[in-house]
Every structure is written in structure tokens, then in C-alpha cells.
Amino acid sequence: MDRMTADPGTETDFRGATLEEVGQAARNHGMPLEGLRYDVTPIGMHYLVTHFDIPAADEASWVVDLDGLVERPLFLSMADLRGRPAVTRPVTMECAGNGRALMSPRAVSQPWLLEAVGNAEWTGTPLRPILDEAGLRPEVVEILFTGADHGIQGGVEHDYQWSFALDDILRDDVLLAYEVNGQPLPPQHGFPIRLLVPDWYGMCSVKWLERITAIEDASDAFQLSAYQVRQEEGGPGTRVTRKSPRALMLPPGFTDFPARQRYVDAGPCELTGRAWSGWGHITRVEISEDGGGTWSEVELEPAPPSPSSWRAWSFGWNAVPGEHELLVRATDDAGNVQPVDPSWNYGGFMNNMAQRVRVLVR
Q1: What domains can you pick out in the chain, each with its CATH number?
Q2: What is the full DSSP assignment across 350-362?
Q3: What is the pLDDT of residues 209-263, one digit of tens each?
Q4: d(CA 91, CA 274)
Q5: Cβ–Cβ < 8 Å for 311, 248
Q6: Rounded distance, CA 324 to CA 294, Å?
């Protein structure tokens, strides 16, 4: 990632912002938590991360090259891609750095709190039949995806790339997507074509896709080493892949400005939100009304047809006067439970600590 620090003395304050972070926050944006009201996130509310510049793109001349260790290299125009069978999938996409600014000391990068998420309906054509048409050779180990965005990160000049082992990418739900919520992709979301890999964190779904390459060795693409859970700079790490379970609450009542303290009138108060995971359906969401001392199960809405889309929940809270700290956490099909506290790492990745919402009940 961009310059990071694990030394709290090099930053102004755990809550303070560096000039680099202000610049990132001005270019990118999160989903206001009010967006949890919607089954499908309006695309203007959907979170956004752009590592480098947004490339200029002309759909009429855009071609995706499929090459490398294949029997039949393909040159896929947008007309070709749009002419293939189309599928629309609701997918919850989340940034691997969601929650980064809540870690201390924190990485100097996009300063996410909890808002780096969205649940959109993506339309495109499945990838697997295209790979079958090209004919992968037996020696293929990974599929490398290259975007048109180009820049310098960590002192390395490179095109944005991500690579997948065959078992991770030869799935029926992976798309080459050209529409979102029934409209062509906006420029900042990868127009005219992007990769969409459900269940994995968003950095894997390469935007402005230009090339698909079948390779015989594990890729050394820069982003694969950048998105690692490490305890120190340059130390050994584990690659970031699937989304950890997370539940989010639509903040109740109303807010002040700019601190966004929540105010609720005493009495019955319905708490609502969404939960998701990259490891299967959400099977349980729990609320704590006392800062994590005790927990109560919420009512889950019926599971969505696809586990790649978030699940709605609700809870009837009897709000009594005083100050309260509400917490919410999720459990998924695989038994993964959202932790109350974060597990620190150098890049600020995968911080799925339970959401805390402080409320003053009047």
C-alpha cells in the first residue's frame, strides 16, 4: 500500500488525518449508513476506491485481450461481450480497508470508518464460458487480470493487476460486468468493463479490464503483495481474499453536526441493518445494549437467494433515558463470528470489529 506507519509517534493523533488521507478521502467516498435502508444501494451511494487515475475509455474501440497459455487467444470487443448470455447478480462489495481508521496506530491510506460497502445489482457475462472457449492449457496455474489504470505505489510503477488460482476463479458466479443497477458502469466504477468476483474484497474485482492472461506460475503482481495482513512493514503476511462477516446498523434517531452523536427519544425504537460475509449466508446477528456485556439475537429477514448479497435484520429496542453504547455483530454459515475488538495489522485490512453506536436517549 501507500506509505504506512506502525509508529504512533509519527502521526498527529489516532483520530487525526494526514494530507495524504485527506487527498484520498476527497477522491473516494463511502456509503452513508443511511444507505442500509435499501436492498439495492443507489450507485451514487455505493462506496468507491480508485488507486490511480480514472482512465479515458471509448466503448466502441475497447477490447479485452485473452491470451497466455490458451489454445485460442480471444479479442473481446464490447459488442462481443454484450452479445453473450447476460446475468444479473446482487453482490455486496466491501473494501478490504473498511474499518482502517478505527485501528491504532493506523495505516496512512484511505481512512475508512465503516462505510466502505455497497450492495448493487451487477450485469455482465459469465467468465467461465469465455475461458472454456479460449481453452486453458493443462499447465495453467493462475489467471491474471490487468486493468487500464496505471501508476506508482510503494515505489513500483505498474498496471493494476490481480491474479487468482484456478479454483478461485473458475466459478459460475464470476462476471465480466458492464452494467450496474441497470445502467452502464460509471467511469469511476470501471466503464466500460470490469471483473466482478463475489465474496472477495473489492480490490480483486479489477476495473477498466484490458487483459486476461493464463499463466503457469504464481503471479508477482504488486497488489498481491500490497494486500497482505502483516504485523510489520515488509514482514511475512497472509493475502487478503474473502470478506469477513460484518453487521452494520442504520444509526437510530437523529444526529448532531459535525460529531454525529445520536439522539433518540425514550420508548420503543426499531433498530435495523444489514449483514454479510464472504463465507456463506449470515445465520445470526446479535445486539448488545450495554457496550458488549450481554447480547440478544435480532430477527433476520429471509435469506437472499444468493449468499453474496447482504441480509436484512431488525430488533425492537426499548430505549430508556441515559447514555448507551449499542454493538452489533454477525455469524456466518462457516461459523465465523465477528469480533468485538479489532486484530491489528500493518495495512489496516479486514477490521471487522463490531460496530459501536453511542446513543443519548432523552
Answers
A1: 8-239 (3.90.420.10), 246-361 (2.60.40.650)
A2: ---PPEEEEEEE-
A3: 999 999 999 999 999 999 999 999 989 999 999 999 999 999 999 999 998 999 9
A4: 13
A5: no
A6: 13
For the chain, the residue count is 362
Report the distance separating Cα 194 and Cα 145, nearest Å: 10
Asked, as a colleague might, if the bond just before 73 is cis with ω within 30 of 0, I would say no
CA distance 32 to 116: 9
- Cβ density class 197-230: b for 16+ within 10 Å, e for less: bbbbbbbbbbbbbbbbbbeeeebebbbbbbbbbb
> 0.90 cut: is pTM over it?
yes
Q: Which residue has the cell 450496474?
A: 180
Give exposure, 243-261, as e/b (b: 16+ Cβ within 10 Å). bbbbbbbbbbbeeeeeeee
Angle at 162 between CA 217 and CA 132, to 5 degrees: 70
Yes or no: say if 97 and 110 are a contact pair by the CB < 8 Å rule: yes
> HEC string of 64-92?
EEEEECECCCEEEEHHHHHHCCCEEEEEE
Taking only the tens place, the pLDDT of each residue in 134-181 is 999 999 999 999 999 999 999 999 999 999 999 999 999 999 999 999
Q: Which residues fall within 8 angstroms of residue 197, CB to CB, at 6 or more apart?
A: 164, 169, 174, 204, 205
For the chain, how many helices (H) and strands (E)? 5, 22
DSSP string spanning 170-213?
Answer: --TT-EEEEEETTEEPPGGGTTT-EEE-TTB-GGGS-SSEEEEE
Q: Give me 261's grid cell.
A: 452523536
